[in-house]
């Protein structure tokens, strides 16, 4: 573990100066901003974790607790946050981990504003969730005083846990092809991370390789109403469509009104599959019940939590990437042909 003396030697200042800077007393002791910046950069580069016990909390019986910050984008993905936190809580209880979890909302693309130095120094580890490309560029360009793990984002610099984006895209294509479908379509939103593009590209590739048409792609807003309106537009413009992949479950739920008003039967000629990130009962109880590629948010959260514990306690922990498999659940909108 890096010490204050090692940082002082690297920065060519006294250990007292380093201690004052790391404890936010630079202005009080009239330490120059240039020296402060130099010391903080060296501390971050060397992976210094200052004063861990001081930022820890005491649980019952005097047990030491590690404070973990979870940065989560406050947008339409907020409904998935409950599943993610349930996964964290279950793992903490199952493994008896001494973790305290704190939520830190941020806007997509503005992670730099949210990750203040004093906030980072008040915790022991950071989980960054739903990072936009600009946020990933910021993380790659900087060093931080705490271990960082990325949820569902790829990185060569930081450990990460992702869902199997290739399978998420290819499974629906394989299912539709095995059912003899020829005219696929995709209803999606603008991609918010590279995994969405991987999913859509793998679906298109699978369709082409299995002798189907190039999928027709319609992009809309991430709302049920927009899913409804876009589905109606798709079927009016492309009546030959016989299978649809909804890149978000909410878009598929919004489309159900269209199928009802057009009296499209299920099971029947038209089939559709949704990528599901909400609780299973949403897709189970609608008419028709949705066939889904179910995203394992709880399992991803569990692996993130365990990975964080290992990273905090392992000197020289190497960057690790873990891929969590997904599950396909056939229902009325695309029933299993047996």
Write the layout of secondary structure elements.
Blueprint: H1 4-11, H2 15-22, H3 33-45, H4 52-55, E1 57-58, E2 64-73, H5 81-95, E3 99-106, H6 111-114, H7 117-120, E4 125-129, H8 133-140, E5 148-151, E6 159-163, H9 165-178, E7 184-188, H10 194-209, E8 216-219, H11 224-237, E9 243-246, H12 249-261, E10 271-276, H13 280-285, E11 291-294, H14 297-313, E12 321-324, E13 327-329
Parallel strand pairs: 2-3, 2-4, 4-5, 5-6, 6-12, 7-8, 7-9, 9-10, 10-11
Antiparallel strand pairs: 1-2, 11-13
Mean pLDDT: 89
Q: Can you identify the CATH class of the largest domain? A: Alpha Beta
Give the % helix.
40-55%
How far the N terminus sits from the C terminus, by CA atoms, comes to: 57 Å
Q: Give the structural class.
A: alpha/beta
Q: Got a strand count?
A: 13
- The CATH homologous superfamily of the largest domain is termed Response regulator
The topology string of helices and strands comes to HHHHEEHEHHEHEEHEHEHEHEHEHEE
Tell me the CATH architecture of the largest domain: 3-Layer(aba) Sandwich
List the total number of helices.
14
Number of domains: 3
Q: Strand portion, in percent?
A: 15-25%
CATH topology of the largest domain: Rossmann fold
- Kindly report the oligomeric state of this protein: single chain
Low-confidence stretches: 57-62
Task: Walk me through this protein's architecture.
By secondary structure, the protein is of the alpha/beta class. It has helices spanning 4-11, 15-22, 33-45, 52-55, 81-95, 111-114, 117-120, 133-140, 165-178, 194-209, 224-237, 249-261, 280-285, 297-313, and strands spanning 57-58, 64-73, 99-106, 125-129, 148-151, 159-163, 184-188, 216-219, 243-246, 271-276, 291-294, 321-324, 327-329. The strands form 2 sheets. Strands 1, 2, 3, 4, 5, 6 and 12 form a 7-stranded mixed beta sheet that branches. It has a 6-stranded mixed beta sheet with strand order 8-7-9-10-11-13, sandwiched between helices. Helix 13 (280-285) links the parallel strand 10 (271-276) and strand 11 (291-294). It is elongated and about 75 Å long. The relative contact order is 0.12.
